[in-house]
Design the sequence.
C-alpha cells in the first residue's frame, strides 16, 4: 500500500496537520448539531482526509461500510429524459458523489438525484444522528445553474440532511451556497509541516534519510502534502538508500508541460505553435485537466519570463482560462493562449533585441 | 385475358397523355427561322417517301430476319433452351390489343414492332451509313400520327448514336474513351500558383466552334487564366479538355515547362505545346475569318437532315409493313415501336405536341443494348433471369438443396437514381418474354395487405394478385408461354406504411414461383440488411459523361435542338450521372432555345450545382484560398454553413498553415503571429458561442458562431498554404479534434475504471483527477520499477501484491501505462524484459484464482443495448480458502459465469471472513458493488459474478443474495 494511504489519519485526533481545525470539527459534531460544511483549499492540503475522519467521528465505524456503486439515472426533464451515469460511494449514513461528472447536465443531477437523496431520511434513528450526510466533491466545477439549484435543497432538507461540500477554490462557489455553509478553509501545509510528516513516515518505515532530504522533497511538492508523500515514496522506489543529491523525479505530465514551455520560449512561429498543439493534445488525451495544463504552463512560462511581461501574460492566462470554462473545446483556448503569448513575446523580443 | 388487362392498363396510361396531342395538328407556332428551312421539305418528302418505301420492304425483310436471328443468337448464347418462337404468341396478342385500342394501321405497325427488329434495324443503319440522325428527323411525321403509344416516339438510340458517330468523325473519336475534365480539382485540391498576370489579358471571343475537334491538356500555371477559366474558354469554343496526355491530344496548353508528367509524355508523343497566347491567337484568328468557319458549324445540324435521311427513311419504312403483317418470327415487345421512335421535331410545332410526354419517357431505351453503361450488369441480369426457370422450377425433383447453392431466387438492383435500373429490369424481362408486374412505393406493400405476396403464394384476394396468382399457377405448366416477373421497385422506400414489408418480401422470395427483381437506391440501407442476403446483388454504376453525352445528343437531334457534344458533356457532368435529370434539364432548356451552347448549360447549371454538397474541405479551401478575401459575405457564410460542425474544426486545424496574403513584407513573422493570435482567439470565441448554441439552444447565434469560428480566421489568414512538417502534403488536414477528443474520452473511461477499482479497494477515497495527477506516476513506478530492478520472481511477486492491494487488474495496468505515455518520450515499459512481462501476466492470472471477486468489466448486461460505459468492478481479496471456491473462480474468470456454480460457493465460503462483499448485479441498471466491513461476523463472504447473461437468472440471483444478507437488500433500483 502506498504510504500516502497507509499513514492517512483515520480519526480527527490523529491529524498530523491542521490539528486545530480537526479539534474544532470534533467539537462541532460532538457538542452540537452539524451545519452544512464547505471545505476548501488547495489540493493535497487534507480536505478529504478531514472529511473522512469527520464522518467517522459522526457515525462511527458505520461510515466505513461503504459500497461503490455505478448507476444510470433516468431523469425526466420536461420534454426529454436524460441519462446520467454516476459513481457513488455510500454507506448507510452518507453518500458521496461527484456531481460535476455529469458534465453540463450536472444541473439535473443536483435537481433530481441529490434532492431525492436529501429527502429520504435515514430509517434507523436510534442512537444515531438524525441526519444523513451528502458529500459532494468538486463543487467548484459545478455549473452556475447547478449551484443555484443546490441552494434550495440545502435549506429545504436541512432537517434530514447535511451537505459537506469539498472544493479547491471557494471563489468558484457562488456566494449563496457559501453563505449557507460553515466555511472551513484548509490551508496548504507549510514546508516545515510537510517535512515533519515525512519524517514521521520515515521513522515508521525505518528509513535512513540524509539530512535536508525532507526539505528538498517538501520544496518540490508545491506545498501539497499528498504530493510530498508520493514523491518521497517515488524516491524510495527509485533509489534506496537515499543519497544527498538524489534527483527527485517530477511528475510525468509536469515534465511534459515544462518541455512545452521551453518550446514556446525558444521559438515563436506558426510551426512551433502547430507542434505545441500536438503536445497539448497529448496532455489532454492523457486526461490531464486543461485548467491544470494552463496553470502549470503559465507558471513555467513565468519562471523564464522577463518581469516586464509577467503582468500581461498573467492577464491573458486568466482571460483564456475563464473562456475555457465558458467553452467546451479546451484545446482551442489553450492554443489561443499560446498564440497570444507567442505574439506578445515575439513583439517583445523584436522590440528589445531588434 | 389477364394479359389483356395488363396491357390495357398500360395503354390507358399512354392514351391518357397522348390523346390530347393527337387531335390538334402541329401547332401553328412558327418554327424558328434557322431550323425551319431545312426541315419543312424534309417533312413533306418523307411523307411521300413513306409510301414508296413500302415497295421495298420485302427485300429488306429477308435481310433483316437473317440479321436479327444471328444477333439474337449472340445475345442469348448459352441459353439454348430458350425458344425463339415462344415470343411470337404474345406478340400476336399484342397486336390484337393494339387494334382494339386504336384502329390506326400505322399504329399497329409501330406497336407491333418487335424489339429484335428494332435492334436489327438499328444495326442496319449502323452498317448502312452514318446517317442515323437525320433519319430520325424524318420519321417524325409518322410518329405524329402514331402517337398513341408514348414509347413509339422514341428513336432507337443506338442507331442514332452510331450514325452520328460515323458522320462527324472527329467528335466521335474524341468522345470515345477519353477521360475528360480530369483537371477538375475536387477534394484534395492542392494549391496551384496564381497566374502571374491574372486577369490582365483580354480574353478573346472566337467563333463558337473554332476549336471543335481539338483536344487540349492544360498543364502548370497559365499566364493570365485560372485553370478553370482556360478550361471554360476551350470548351466554349468547342474544344475538349482532358486530364492526361494521350495520342489523341492535339495540344498541351502550358506557359511554362514545369517538367511534369504531362509535359514529359507530350514530348514523348510529339504533342505540340501551345502557350496561352497561342490559344488566344487561335481563337482570334477564327474571329477574323468568322464568316467562313461559321458556316460549317451551322451546317452540321442543318445539312445532315437534308442529305442522309432519304435512304434511311426508306429502309425504315420498308420494315414497317412487314411487321404489320404480324408474321415476324421474333418475339414482340408490345410497347416497342422502332419506327416512330425515330421521332424528330422536324417542325418546332410538332415538338410541342410531344411536350406532354416528358423526354425521359419518350426516350426510354427500348432494348437492353440501348441502356447506357452497365452492360455487364445487364448481361448478368439477363443470365440470371434466363436461367431462373431451370434453377428453380425444372430442378424441383432434385430437391430443394439446389436453391442453397449460391444461386439466389431474387435479384437486387441498386444504384443512384436516374441511371436506368427500372428500365433495364423491364427491358431484360421483356426481352426474355416475361410479363412484368411492377409494384412500387405508390402501392401499399405492408404486411397487413401483402396481396402480391399472397398472390405469389397462391392465395387470391384482389385483382392484382389474381393476376399474379393466375400467372404463377401457369408458370408451373410449361406448356403455357406467359411467364411473369415481379419487379419490386423502390424497396428501400418501404417504410412506416409498409410494416413488415421487407420481411414479407423475403418470405415471398422464398416461396416464389416467379422471379423477383428488387430495386433500390442504397444497397447499404439498414432496412435492406436482411434482404441483401436473399438476393443476387447487382450494382449499377453511373455512366461516364461521354456515354451520356452521346445519348443526349441523339435526343437533342431528335428534338431538333442544336447542341454540341462538349456542352452535353458538361450537362452530363453537372447532372452527376443522372440521365433522367440531364434529360429533364435538356427538355426544359429546349423550351426557351433551340440552340444550346456550352455557356448556356454552364449558366443554367451553375445555380443548380450550388445545391450539390460541397465538402468541408472544399469549403475550407475556398475560404482560405488566395481569393478568399474576394468572396461575398453570404458566400462565406454559405461555405462555412455547408457543414457547421466540421468546417470550424478544419479551420482550426489548418489556420496556422496559411501565410496571410494581407500582410506584405513580414520578415520576422511578427505580423503573421499577431494575426494567428487574433484568429485563435476568434476560433475560441466560436467555441464559446457554440456552447451557447448547443447547451442553451440559442440557435439564432449560429451565424455569429460561423462568423467567429470560420470567417474571421479565414479573413485574417487567407493566403498561400505552407506545409509545417517535413514530408507533410500541402493539403488541409482533417480536424484533429474529433480523434483526440474520442481518445480522451476513451482514456477517461479507462481512468474511471481504474478509479472505481481503486476506490473499491477501500484504500483510496479521492477523486479521479487526483488519481491521474498525483497517483499515476507512483503507481506506474510501483508497477514497473520492480520489474527492472529485481529478479524476475521477486519482482513479479512484488508487483502482483501491489496490484492486489489497490485491486488493480491487468487492464488497469495497461491503462496506467497508456496514460503515462507521451509522444516523444520513452515508453514507460522500456527496459522490461518480455519474459518478465509474461511472467507477470501469468502470476497475476494464477493469483486471480485466489481472489474472491473479479471484475465484472465488459460483460454485457441483459436489457442494455451496449455494455454500460462505466463499469464497476469488484474487489480483490486473497483468500486461503477451499479449492472448491477456487474452481468456481476460475470458472467465472473465463467469462462464462455459471449461476449454480456461484451459488454453491455461497455455502462453501466459510463464515470467519471479516469482510463480506456483495457484488450484486443489478438488472438493467448497471452493476453495483457492495463492500462492507463487517463488524459482526456474519455468515459467509459471498460472491456473485456481476455479469449476467440472462435477465431471468439474474432476478433469481438477486433474490438469493438478498436473502443471504440483510445489507444486500440495500440495493437500489
Sequence:
Amino acid at each position: 500500500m502506498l504510504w500516502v494511504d497507509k499513514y492517512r489519519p483515520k480519526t480527527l485526533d490523529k491529524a498530523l496537520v491542521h490539528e486545530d481545525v480537526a479539534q474544532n470539527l470534533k467539537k462541532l459534531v460532538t457538542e452540537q448539531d452539524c451545519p452544512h460544511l464547505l471545505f476548501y483549499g488547495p489540493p493535497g492540503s487534507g480536505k478529504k482526509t478531514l472529511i473522512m475522519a469527520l464522518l467517522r467521528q459522526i457515525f462511527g465505524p458505520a461510515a466505513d461500510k461503504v459500497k461503490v456503486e455505478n448507476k444510470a439515472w433516468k431523469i425526466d426533464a420536461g420534454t426529454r429524459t436524460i441519462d446520467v451515469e454516476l459513481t457513488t460511494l455510500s454507506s448507510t449514513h452518507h453518500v458521496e458523489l461527484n456531481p460535476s461528472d455529469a458534465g453540463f447536465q450536472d444541473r439535473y443531477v443536483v435537481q433530481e438525484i441529490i434532492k431525492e437523496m436529501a429527502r429520504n431520511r435515514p430509517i434507523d434513528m436510534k442512537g444515531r444522528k438524525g441526519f444523513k450526510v451528502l458529500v459532494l466533491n468538486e463543487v467548484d466545477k459545478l455549473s452556475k445553474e447547478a449551484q443555484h439549484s443546490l441552494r434550495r435543497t440545502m435549506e429545504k432538507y436541512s432537517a434530514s440532511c447535511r451537505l459537506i461540500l469539498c472544493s479547491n477554490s471557494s471563489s468558484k462557489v457562488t456566494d449563496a451556497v457559501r453563505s449557507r455553509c460553515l466555511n472551513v478553509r484548509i490551508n496548504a501545509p507549510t514546508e516545515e509541516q510537510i517535512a515533519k510528516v515525512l519524517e514521521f513516515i520515515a521513522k515508521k518505515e525505518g528509513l535512513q534519510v540524509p539530512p535536508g532530504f525532507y526539505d528538498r522533497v517538501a520544496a518540490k511538492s508545491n506545498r501539497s502534502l499528498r504530493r510530498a508523500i508520493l514523491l518521497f515514496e517515488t524516491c524510495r522506489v527509485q533509489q534506496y538508500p537515499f543519497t544527498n543529491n538524489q534527483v527527485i523525479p517530477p511528475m510525468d505530465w509536469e515534465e511534459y508541460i515544462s518541455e512545452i514551455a521551453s518550446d514556446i520560449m525558444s521559438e515563436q512561429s506558426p510551426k512551433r505553435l502547430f507542434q505545441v498543439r500536438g503536445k497539448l493534445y497529448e496532455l489532454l488525451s492523457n486526461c490531464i485537466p486543461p485548467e491544470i495544463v494552463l496553470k502549470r504552463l503559465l507558471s513555467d512560462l513565468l519562471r523564464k519570463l522577463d518581469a516586464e511581461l509577467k503582468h500581461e501574460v498573467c492577464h491573458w492566462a486568466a482571460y483564456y482560462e475563464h473562456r475555457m470554462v465558458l467553452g467546451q473545446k479546451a484545446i482551442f483556448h489553450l492554443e489561443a493562449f499560446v498564440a497570444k503569448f507567442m505574439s506578445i513575446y515575439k513583439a517583445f523580443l523584436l522590440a528589445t533585441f531588434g | 385475358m389477364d394479359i389483356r388487362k395488363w396491357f390495357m392498363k398500360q395503354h390507358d396510361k399512354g392514351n391518357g397523355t397522348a390523346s390530347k396531342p393527337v387531335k390538334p395538328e402541329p401547332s401553328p407556332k412558327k418554327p424558328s427561322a434557322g431550323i425551319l428551312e431545312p426541315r419543312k421539305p424534309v417533312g413533306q418528302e418523307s411523307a411521300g417517301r413513306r409510301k414508296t418505301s413500302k415497295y421495298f420492304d420485302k427485300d429488306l425483310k429477308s435481310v433483316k430476319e437473317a440479321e436479327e436471328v444471328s444477333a439474337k443468337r449472340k445475345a442469348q448464347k448459352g441459353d439454348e433452351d430458350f425458344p425463339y418462337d415462344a415470343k411470337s404468341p404474345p406478340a400476336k396478342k399484342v397486336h390484337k390489343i393494339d387494334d382494339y385500342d386504336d384502329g390506326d394501321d400505322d399504329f399497329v405497325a409501330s406497336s407491333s414492332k418487335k424489339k429484335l427488329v428494332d435492334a436489327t434495324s438499328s444495326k442496319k443503319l449502323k452498317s448502312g451509313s452514318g446517317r442515323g440522325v437525320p433519319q430520325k428527323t424524318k420519321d417524325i411525321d409518322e410518329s405524329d400520327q402514331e402517337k398513341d403509344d408514348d414509347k413509339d416516339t422514341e428513336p432507337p438510340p443506338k442507331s442514332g448514336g452510331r450514325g452520328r458517330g460515323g458522320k462527324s468523325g472527329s467528335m466521335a473519336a474524341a468522345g470515345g474513351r477519353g477521360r475528360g475534365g480530369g483537371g477538375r480539382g475536387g477534394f484534395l485540391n492542392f494549391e496551384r500558383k496564381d497566374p502571374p498576370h491574372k486577369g490582365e489579358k483580354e480574353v478573346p471571343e472566337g467563333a463558337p466552334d473554332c476549336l471543335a475537334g481539338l483536344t487540349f491538356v492544360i498543364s502548370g500555371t497559365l499566364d493570365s487564366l485560372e485553370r478553370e477559366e482556360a478550361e471554360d474558354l476551350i470548351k466554349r469554343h468547342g474544344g475538349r479538355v482532358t486530364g492526361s496526355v494521350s495520342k489523341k491530344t492535339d495540344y498541351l496548353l502550358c506557359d511554362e515547362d514545369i517538367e511534369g508528367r504531362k509535359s514529359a509524355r507530350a514530348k514523348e508523343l510529339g504533342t505540340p505545346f501551345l502557350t496561352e497566347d497561342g490559344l488566344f491567337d487561335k481563337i482570334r484568328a477564327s474571329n477574323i475569318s468568322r464568316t467562313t468557319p461559321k458556316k460549317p458549324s451551322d451546317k452540321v445540324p442543318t445539312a445532315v437532315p437534308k442529305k442522309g435521311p432519304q435512304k434511311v427513311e426508306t429502309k425504315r419504312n420498308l420494315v414497317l409493313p412487314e411487321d404489320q403483317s404480324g408474321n415476324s418470327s421474333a418475339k414482340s415487345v408490345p410497347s416497342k415501336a422502332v419506327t416512330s421512335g425515330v421521332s424528330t421535331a422536324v417542325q418546332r410545332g410538332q415538338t410541342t405536341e410531344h411536350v406532354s410526354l416528358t423526354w425521359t419517357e419518350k426516350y426510354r431505351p427500348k432494348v437492353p443494348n440501348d441502356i447506357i453503361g452497365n452492360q455487364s450488369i445487364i448481361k448478368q441480369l439477363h443470365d440470371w433471369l434466363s436461367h431462373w426457370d431451370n434453377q428453380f422450377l425444372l430442378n424441383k425433383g432434385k430437391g430443394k438443396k439446389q436453391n442453397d447453392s449460391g444461386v439466389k431466387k431474387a435479384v437486387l438492383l441498386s444504384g443512384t437514381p436516374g441511371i436506368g435500373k427500372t428500365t433495364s429490369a423491364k427491358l431484360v424481362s421483356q426481352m426474355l418474354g416475361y410479363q412484368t408486374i411492377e409494384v412500387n412505393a405508390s402501392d401499399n406493400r405492408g404486411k397487413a395487405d401483402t396481396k402480391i405476396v399472397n398472390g405469389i403464394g397462391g392465395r387470391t384476394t384482389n385483382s392484382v394478385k389474381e393476376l399474379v396468382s393466375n400467372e404463377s399457377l401457369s408458370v408451373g405448366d410449361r406448356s403455357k408461354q406467359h411467364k411473369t416477373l415481379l419487379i419490386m421497385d423502390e424497396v428501400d422506400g418501404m417504410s412506416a406504411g409498409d410494416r413488415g414489408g421487407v420481411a414479407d418480401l423475403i418470405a415471398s422470395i422464398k416461396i416464389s414461383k416467379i422471379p423477383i427483381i428488387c430495386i433500390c437506391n442504397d444497397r447499404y440501407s439498414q432496412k435492406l440488411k436482411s434482404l441483401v442476403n436473399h438476393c443476387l446483388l447487382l450494382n449499377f454504376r453511373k455512366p461516364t459523361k461521354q456515354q451520356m453525352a452521346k445519348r443526349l445528343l441523339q435526343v437533342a437531334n431528335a428534338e431538333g435542338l442544336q447542341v454540341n457534344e462538349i456542352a452535353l458533356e458538361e450537362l452530363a457532368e453537372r447532372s452527376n450521372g443522372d440521365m433522367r435529370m440531364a434529360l429533364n434539364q435538356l427538355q426544359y432548356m429546349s423550351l426557351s432555345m433551340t440552340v444550346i451552347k456550352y455557356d448556356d448549360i454552364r449558366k443554367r447549371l451553375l445555380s443548380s450545382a450550388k445545391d450539390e454538397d460541397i465538402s468541408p474541405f472544399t469549403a475550407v479551401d475556398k475560404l482560405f484560398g488566395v481569393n478568399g478575401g474576394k468572396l461575398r459575405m453570404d458566400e462565406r457564410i454559405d461555405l462555412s454553413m455547408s457543414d457547421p460542425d466540421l468546417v470550424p474544426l478544419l479551420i482550426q486545424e489548418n489556420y496556422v498553415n496559411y501565410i496571410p496574403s494581407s500582410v506584405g513584407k513580414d520578415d520576422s513573422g511578427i505580423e503573421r503571429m499577431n494575426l494567428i493570435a487574433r484568429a485563435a482567439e476568434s476560433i475560441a470565441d466560436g467555441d464559446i458561442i457554440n456552447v451557447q448554441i448547443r447547451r442553451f439552444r440559442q440557435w439564432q447565434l449560429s451565424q455569429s458562431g460561423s462568423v467567429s469560428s470560420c470567417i474571421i480566421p479565414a479573413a485574417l489568414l487567407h493566403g498561400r498554404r505552407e506545409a509545417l512538417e517535413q514530408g507533410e502534403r500541402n493539403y488541409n488536414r482533417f480536424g484533429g479534434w474529433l480523434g483526440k477528443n474520442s481518445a480522451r474520452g476513451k482514456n477517461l473511461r479507462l481512468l474511471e475504471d481504474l478509479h472505481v477499482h481503486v476506490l473499491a479497494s477501500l484504500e483510496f477515497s479521492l477523486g479521479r483527477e487526483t488519481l491521474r495527477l498525483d497517483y499515476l506516476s507512483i503507481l506506474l513506478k510501483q508497477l514497473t520499477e520492480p520489474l527492472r530492478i529485481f529478479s524476475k520472481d521477486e519482482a513479479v511477486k512484488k508487483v502482483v501484491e501491489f496490484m492486489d492491494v489497490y485491486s488493480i487488474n491487468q487492464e488497469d495496468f495497461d491503462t496506467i501505462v497508456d496514460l503515462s505515455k507521451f509522444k516523444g518520450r520513452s515508453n514507460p515499459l522500456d527496459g522490461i524484459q518480455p519474459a518478465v512481462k509474461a511472467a507477470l501476466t501469468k502470476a497475476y492470472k494464477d493469483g486471480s484464482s485466489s481472489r474472491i471477486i473479479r471484475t465484472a468489466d465488459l460483460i454485457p448486461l441483459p436489457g442494455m443495448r451496449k455494455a454500460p460505459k462505466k463499469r464497476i468492478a469488484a474487489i480483490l481479496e486473497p483468500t486461503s480458502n477451499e479449492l472448491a471456491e477456487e474452481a468456481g473462480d476460475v470458472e467465472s474468470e473465463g467469462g462464462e459465469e455459471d449461476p449454480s456454480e456461484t451459488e454453491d460457493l455461497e455455502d462453501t465460503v466459510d463464515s470467519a471472513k471479516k469482510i463480506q462483499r456483495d457484488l450484486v448485479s443489478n438488472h438493467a441498471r448497471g452493476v453495483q458493488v457492495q463492500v462492507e466491513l463487517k463488524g459482526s461476523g456474519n455468515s459467509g463472504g459471498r460472491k456473485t459474478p456481476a455479469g449476467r447473461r440472462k435477465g431471468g437468472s439474474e432476478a433469481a440471483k438477486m433474490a438469493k443474495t438478498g436473502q443471504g444478507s440483510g445489507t444486500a437488500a440495500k440495493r437500489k433500483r
In short: The two ends of chain B are 68 Å apart (CA to CA). The first helix of chain B runs from residue 2 to 22. Chain B has a mean pLDDT of 63.
